[in-house]
Write a structure and sequence with these properties.
It is a single chain. With 119 residues, this protein is α/β, with parallel strands linked by helices. It has one domain: STAS domain (Transcription Regulator spoIIAA), CATH 3.30.750. Helix content is 43%, strand content 24%. It contains five helices and seven strands. The protein has a five-stranded mixed β-sheet with strand order 1-2-4-6-7. A two-stranded parallel sheet has the order 3-5. α1 packs parallel to α2.
Amino acid sequence: MASGESRLRVKTEGNVTRVEFVDRNILDEGNIQQIGDEILRLIDEQDHPKLLISFANVEHLSSAALGTLITINTKIRAKDGQLRLTDIDPQIYEVFVITKLNKLFQIHETTDEAMASFK
């Protein structure tokens, strides 16, 4: 199923791994599975992962993608790591509020704010 082409852009800054999405719409089940697998591999490679996920390019996000974010968050916490979300479109953020996921995740308006929040 995976085409071998990454759905993510990954950069490391200091001890923080920054992830951006290639796709504007994260709706397709196959892509979501691939994205989840890629991020979980990044988490597995670190003892105490510090992960920043930027939604700067994302216009649409499915509920399955939200489920994948919850799985990612659980895995990071199990490894005593930290997760930050940033640059979320106001319409997408509204979904986080409705589902109360804005209480689960640390969400920042800008990448700089998110980077500064890591301990």
